[in-house]
Amino acid sequence: MIVCVAVVGHQNNPLYLQSFTDADDALKLHHIVHCSLDVIDERVNNPKKAGSTFNETFLGLLYPTENYKVYGYLTNTKVKFMLVTTDLDVRDADVRNFFRKFHSAYVDAVSNPFHVPGKKISSATFADRVSTIVKSFGSTAAV
User: Fold this and answer.
1) Which residues pair with 85 in a beta bridge?
2) pTM for the predicted model, two decimal places
3) Residue 117, by phi and psi: left (phi above 0), alpha (psi -120 to 50) or beta?
4) More confident call, 142 vs 72
């Protein structure tokens, strides 16, 4: 189950953070996302040490904790997408597909002429589209 998605700007400023839990875990999830930024910086700055090719946008599992797993994705403009899930057996193909859809929704949101680049994404359409993508991820991961 996806509990949080986040978009972080190229200067590590939060652009969008949405929690999908009933409890008040937003602060804890914000902290987990913030801790994951260090892992992304390490992988981007030391690609040989990370073992993956640098032109790969999917960063894979970034930060496993006791209750959560954090996956990352890096766009060409150095905007970071993060997915926090409670599932222990998530397939990389499902996560890649999620990030592909999420990236498409992000591009549509920032292509809006009324969006100011570098500012938080406050579009209700983007939030609805993200919720739909998260719900579809939950149903495809169970199959």
Assistant:
1) 2, 69
2) 0.88
3) beta
4) 72
